[in-house]
Amino acid sequence: MTVPLTLLGLLEREPSHGYDLKRDYDTFFGRGKPLPYGQVYSTLSRLARDGKVVVGDVAPGAGPDRKRYVITDRGATEVEHWLTEPVEPEPHLQTLLFTKVVLALMLDRPAEEYLDTQRAAHLRRMRELTEIKRSGELVDVMLADHGLYHLEADLRWIETTGARLDALRKAVRS
């Protein structure tokens, strides 16, 4: 996810302070990876430099003055363009899983063990996401669904690849 465009989208909703933007970003988009304050303010500085936001009201704070950022027409146009453009369809044809399996076969290492270890890691993560679905709020449930669907596809690939290892071994060694 692109942080600058997400912050612009949050600003299109309403003018906000950096602290509020970080809170909203972390609440909806930063699951497991909160946005550092430094990144929020450096991103806002670049957006201001590029004419996509301006500083509105400035109020004194306990530390530095609290600036309220306001999206400009240029920023709103960029958000509109970004939202209407489709996301590049995934998955990419070259993945880390594929690379590790092929290299293991090329190097005469036990690709089967790698696939078993990866399967176990995927199943652990699926159990974690399933628990989130049971106890989480709607945003968490929807993110968990997205993750589960991707993990299910990976597991299908792991199973298919395991069944084809002998043929793949021959192909990469020839």
UniProtKB/TrEMBL annotation:
Q: What is this protein called?
A: PadR family transcriptional regulator
Under Pfam families, the record lists: PadR (PF03551)
- What stretch or stretches form a coiled coil here? none
Q: Where is the Transcription regulator PadR N-terminal domain?
A: 7-80
Q: Which organism is it from?
A: Micromonospora aurantiaca (nom. illeg.)
Q: Could you tell me which InterPro entries the record lists for this protein?
A: Tscrpt_reg_PadR_N, WH-like_DNA-bd_sf, WH_DNA-bd_sf
